[in-house]
UniProtKB/TrEMBL annotation:
Entry keyword annotation includes NADP: yes
Protein known as: Glucose-6-phosphate 1-dehydrogenase
InterPro entries: G6P_DH (IPR001282), G6P_DH_C (IPR022675), G6P_DH_NAD-bd (IPR022674), NAD(P)-bd_dom_sf (IPR036291)
Domain Glucose-6-phosphate dehydrogenase NAD-binding: 11-175
Domain of life (superkingdom): Bacteria
Species whose genome carries this gene: Actinoplanes ianthinogenes
TM regions (residue ranges): none
Alphabetical list of Pfam families matching this protein: G6PD_C, G6PD_N
Amino acid sequence: MTKQDATQTLVILGASGDLTARLLLPGLGALLAAGDAPPVTLVGAGTDEWDAERWRERVATAFGEHGKAKRAAETLDRTRYVRADVTQPDDLRRLLDGADGAISIFFALPPAVTVKACEALLDVGLPEGTRLVLEKPFGTSASSAASLNRLLTRLAPEERIHRVDHFLGKSTVLNILGLRFANRIFEPLLGSEHVESVDIVFDEELALEGRAGYYDKAGALADMIQSHLLQILALLTMEAPLSLDPQVFRDGIAEALRAVRLWGGDPKASSVRARYAGYAGEAGVDPARQTETLAEIVLAVDNWRWAGVPFRLRSGKALGTGRKEAVILFKEPPRIPDGFRGPDQPDRLRISFGPDRLALDFDINGPGDPFVLDPVTLEAEFGPGELPPYGEVLRGVFEDDPLLSVRGDVAEQCWRIVEPVQAAWRAGEVPLLEYPVGSSGPQD
Ligand code: NDP
C-alpha cells in the first residue's frame, strides 16, 4: 500500500460552524474529487445534538457535485458526528478513539475555545504523528501568539502544526513566486533602485455578511492586514529561496518580515482607521469597541533591497469597488528624450487576486504620430487554481507539507509589525473616521 492509499482521519472541531460549512468542507470535497488525496475518514465534533444523518447531509451539501466522485462518496459513507465539548479531555478521548491512520485535528473553533481545547489535549496525549490545523486569528498579540506557540509545541513538533492562511493557497498569490523567481525579467527591477512604491489592497464591496460576532472583535487590521496582506508583502519582498523546502522557504518569509517596520515609526502619520456609516448599529456590533471596517498602514521594509520604498497595505469593507491587487509602481525613467510627447503613464506591475490577472502598464510610441507616446497594457489572465484555497490547505496537511502554513515565528512577527498601530488606536491617538457605504473610503 502506498502512502497515498493509507486512510487518514480528519477531525473537525466546530462541525456546525460557518468556516466548516462554507470553506472547509467544500475544500475537502474538491480535494477528494481531484483524486490525489488519501482516503479520508471525516469526524465532525460539536456541542449540538446532531444525529449522524444531519451531519452527513451537511457534508453532502458542502461537497455538492464533488460528492459523486469515488473518494468523496467513500468519505460521505464513512463520516460520523460526535457530540463533544472539546474543552473536556474525556470528550476528546472519545473523539480520537479508533481513528484510522494519521490524524489531523482542524480547530474550526472560536480562538478562545481553541486554546482551551489545546490545553485539554495535553491531558489526553496525542497519537504520534497527529497534525494540528489552526485558524486565524493566531493569538491577538505577539506575546499571546508566542504563548499559544509554546502550548502547541508541547502537543506536536512545529512541522506538524499548520497555521492556516488560506491566501497562501490562492493560485495568484503563489504565482508571485513563479513570476519573481522563475524569470529573469522582473526580479532585477524589484528593489529601491527602480520601485517607487507598492500598494497591497484588498477592498471588498461586501459588508459583514452576518459575521459580526467574529468581525467586531477582530476588525480590518487584524482580520486582513496582520495576516493575509503581510504574507503577500513577504512574498513580494523575500529573497529568492534556494528551494521550496518548507524550512528554507519559510526562513525566507521570516527574514523578509523581520525587516518590516511602520513607515516613519509614527502610527498617527502612517495609519488610517475608519468604519462605514451604519456599522455601529448593526446586529452583533458593540459600538464601544470602536472596531474599524477599513484599515490602512504604511510600512517600510528596512533592508538593503527595499529601504526607502513605502508599502501601503489597505483593506476595507462595504466599499464601492472591490479591488484586490498588489501594485508595484516603478520610478520614472531618469530622462525621456526631448521630442517625445504623450501620456507618460507610470510603469506599473499589477497582480490581481480575483479575477486572477497580471498586468504590466507602460508607454510606447504606438500607432499614429511616432513621437506621441501611447499607454499600453500587457495582460495575462488565468483561471482559478485547480483547487479552492482550502483544498490546497488540506492537501498540505494530508501530505505533511507545511510549506503553505504560517510558521510560529512568522505569526509572531506579523503581530509585532502591527502592535504599535493597535496601541495607538486603542489610546485614541488616531481618529476613527467614517465613510459612506459604497464609497471609495474616508476622504482626506
Ligand atoms: P462559528 O462561531 O461559526 O463556529 C464555531 C464552532 O465552534 C461552532 O460549531 C461551535 O459549536 C463550536 N464550538 C464552540 N465551543 C465549542 C466547544 N466547547 N466544544 C465543541 N464545539 C464548540 O465560527 P467560524 O466557523 O466562523 O470560525 C471558526 C474559526 O475559523 C475562527 O477561529 C475564525 O476566526 C476562523 N475563520 C473563519 C472564517 C469564516 O469565514 N467563517 C474565515 C477565516 C477564519 P456550537 O455552536 O454548537 O457551540
